[in-house]
Amino acid sequence: MIQELADRAVVGGVADEPDRPVVVFDHVSLAFDDKVILKDVSFTLLSGRTKIILGASGAGKSITLKILLGLLKPDSGAVWVNGQRTDELAEEDMMEVRANLGMVFQEGALFDSLTVRENVGYRLYEETDMPLDDVDRRVEEVLGFVGLAEFAERMPSALSGGQRRRVAIARAMAAKPQILLYDEATTGLDPMTAMTVDDEIIKLRDIEEVSSILVTHQLRDAFYIATHAAVRQGNGDVRIVPADREKERESEFLMLRDGLIIFEGDAETLRRSKDEYLKTFLS
């Protein structure tokens, strides 16, 4: 099944239609000396869907994102991103792949010496030949999307933790990537602030049709994202509502333990699991 999906990804090139794989891990393994990090890991992410990676510290969650970004090469197996086999690409060839990837880090990783506007537009200013007026319009658009348009000229130090994370999301989406990667995007935030970040992740998935992979140990946020949906109302406003069962199935959990996938399925299936390790983890 994994190989069939990989073949579809390769044949289709850049994923631009529903149910086409945008990420394929095919029997990926990685070890650092004698320490096994990932062991024969296989999964797919379909276009417009969400994969939520859970696991204890050291289970290999963040390493998975680093492999996707081409920062680490697996010892064996194959990785496809938007139709390209990336584990065989040289560093210079990975730049094209990364152009369709956006990354949101735990601390936001904003440039303290740049304004919010400059932070959000940094990639467009530095890595593209987009006219400055077009960059400014795109920056205004994405800041409006995350509800921070009025903060464009502020410095990151003047923002709250939740606002900095939302600026980081705006920066990640500015170049219109097809895939967004979130590495502990809500860690360290209070529950109400974390929910504002969760809402942006949901909006990007459902309104902008961005595929996403979330690495987190924040179970409340993980289940909230998996069980809610964004809908655009007649007046153009976007509401976050409970997802129906069909929509819930579009978000899959993947549980790593000692480098192995021990569970893959939707929120309801995870909740009903009788596996003692999963029950203890969820408690």
Keywords:
Rossmann fold; 38% helix; 283 residues; six-stranded mixed sheet; alpha/beta; globular
Write the layout of secondary structure elements.
Blueprint: H1 2-12, E1 21-32, E2 35-46, E3 50-55, H2 61-68, E4 76-81, E5 84-85, H3 91-98, E6 101-104, H4 116-127, H5 132-145, H6 161-173, E7 179-183, H7 191-206, E8 211-215, H8 219-226, E9 228-232, E10 238-242, H9 245-248, E11 251-257, E12 260-265, H10 267-272, H11 276-282
Parallel strand pairs: 3-8, 3-11, 6-7, 7-8
Antiparallel strand pairs: 1-2, 1-4, 4-5, 9-10, 11-12
Give a written overview of the molecule.
It is globular, with a radius of gyration of 19 Å. Helix 4 packs parallel to helix 6. The protein has a single domain, classed as Rossmann fold, CATH 3.40.50. The strands form three sheets. A six-stranded mixed β-sheet has the order 6-7-8-3-11-12, with helices on both faces. With 283 residues, it is α/β, with parallel strands linked by helices. It has helices at residues 2-12, 61-68, 91-98, 116-127, 132-145, 161-173, 191-206, 219-226, 245-248, 267-272, 276-282; strands at 21-32, 35-46, 50-55, 76-81, 84-85, 101-104, 179-183, 211-215, 228-232, 238-242, 251-257, 260-265. Helices cover 38% and strands 27% of the residues. 41% of the residues are buried.
